[in-house]
Records
---
Amino acid sequence: MGTEKILVIGSCGQLGTELVEALRGIYGDSNVIASDLKKSDNPVFEAGPFETLDILDEKSFREIVEKYKPTHVYHLAALLSATAEKMPEFAWKLNMDGLFHVLNAARDMGVIKRVYWPSSIAAFGPNTPRYNTPQFGSMDPTTVYGISKLSGELYAQYYYNRWGVDTRSLRYPGLIGYKSAPGGGTTDYAVSIYHDALQTKTHECFLKEGTVLPMLYMPDALKATLDIMHAPSEQVKIRSSYNLAGMSFGPEEIAAAIQNHIPDFKITYNVDYRQQIAESWPAVIDDSSAREDWGWKPDYDLDKMTADMLANLKNSY
Ligand code: NAD
Ligand code: SER
């Protein structure tokens, strides 16, 4: 793929671990620079360059940009919804200053040609229609994470309009995968439920029965991320962030899908503060703009994802 050099910031998390592997498959190991606060022991990170980087340290970040001259930056470092509520001031600082450091470097340094930065369903709020949530409409997030995502979307769009920074973004639903652990979100139960199903055949859920949320299987998330980054500029018509949907379900529905494979699996409920966060988010997303503009279409529904998750996780237990 051309002469691109890729820098991934926050690469050792749930998404980054898989994204680095996918990007190295496309661009070659030495052309994808992974970076994070510290290197994780996942073998993915042995295959190519890794830099220790705190994105809040702008000087060190710019030195890395000078050193590798990345043409594409994927900026993934953030505090997710549940963790952010425990330290709201720091979450705001990390989520916003980190983004500004990336956007300003892209504007000022003449090296970075394209920036990917994910938003989230958390950018919506209680006055957003929960079903068939439109691309444009009322957005009144109630979490510091959601406020930072909505603000980030508007700034990404502003840098594109004002300075021509080629920003691209997706509003991810809850991401589910078997290769890496989630990092403190409200949707994390939908990952741990599979591990629990295989280990103890029981899962205690922190969300109530009937709490429907949008979710996306990791192979679809990777496909969408790479597709929007590879799309010709004129196809990326929305520069704030695109709605993106895969599937929607509540805890009892994912439990039933697991019971098709493990009939004696049981779910119980012990609801905590994350219920309130979940209730402020959409249930079913309308992603027709992504479908129309750059051809988005997910491959996985709940049953297909469940079969794949369980088949792959079985190997680790
Ligand atoms: P994660 O918490 O698993 O990973 C984040 C990574 O960022 C971690 O490896 C962490 O060490 C790193 N990091 C934290 N502070 C840093 C700093 N100061 N400098 C450099 N690195 C730092 O998160 P994730 O699930 O991989 O999410 C990646 C992105 O996708 C985030 O922006 C998140 O908001 C967004 N997103 C994720 C989901 C999801 O369900 N996982 C849903 C919507 C949006
Ligand atoms: N999965 C994420 C979270 O729960 C949504 O951005 O925080």
---
Amino acid sequence: MANIINGKLIANQVKNNVKLEVDKLKESGIEVCLAVVLVGNDPASKVYVRNKKLACDKVGIISKEILFDENISQNELVSAIKDLNNDNKINGILVQLPLPRHLDEKEIIRSIDPVKDVDAFHPVNVGKIMIGEYDFLPCTPAGIVDLIDSTGVDICGKNCVVVGRSNIVGKPMAMLLTNRSGTVTVCHSKTNKLIEFTKKADILVAAVGVANFINADMIKPGAVVIDVGINRMQDGKLCGDVDFASAEKVAGYITPVPGGVGPMTIAKLMENTLRAAKKQNSI
Ligand code: L34
């Protein structure tokens, strides 16, 4: 049976360390503040944004929730982001994705000042990661690296397979594993004979968005299995991209859903917001 990687516990350790530094900044008169922009009423996004606010409260970061009607125009949203860029009390800006379909997500992301881009989604920050000169790492992939490190399995030299090639998870995940000297293969919905790749993975990251997509037959015995999926089932329960019940019999280490990658994403957001505040105050 696999060891279950406790994302909640590791996230709490990260947040405790952030809190110590946030408290220190407060003593020197610096308040750390994150603006979270939420457009519309997507129920999952509301849960994630609420969890981000709770994390801010826990570590002592001021959180400003900025809610917009789902019919907001592109220009209105861009101008709201510009106001946040110009507000020197705000250290970090996060626009919760996905946005309603009439909005141009790429332009919205480009309108965020890169120094406040705590998601690391702006093209400038993505480019910096590519050449290893980054200020921020994207929260989910960075959190996953911490989760892998917590197992004691060294990424260096391992076969790492990432299933999914999104800009938010798959592509940056491949970059971070490459930077840590993993041998990385990126698979996706068009990959032929996916199982032949996943079966060889010492470290398998599933970010497909399809419930129970990865089953035990696709996993190398003893592998580290990271499940990025959060699929809501009809009965309201959450379910990952990995069929946990069968996978845990084969894997060496596995993340649960919930309580795995999700809490780490938020903990890394707290770290990035702290880093933004320090940089903006030349610390
Ligand atoms: N801009 N948009 C932006 N940045 C992000 O980093 C995200 N992401 C993804 C969606 N859109 C984004 C998140 O915040 C996914 N995501 C996220 C954040 C938190 C959780 C899951 C996904 C989370 O709290 N997960 C809990 C369960 C929550 C529940 O009950 O639904 C968990 O334990 O996995």
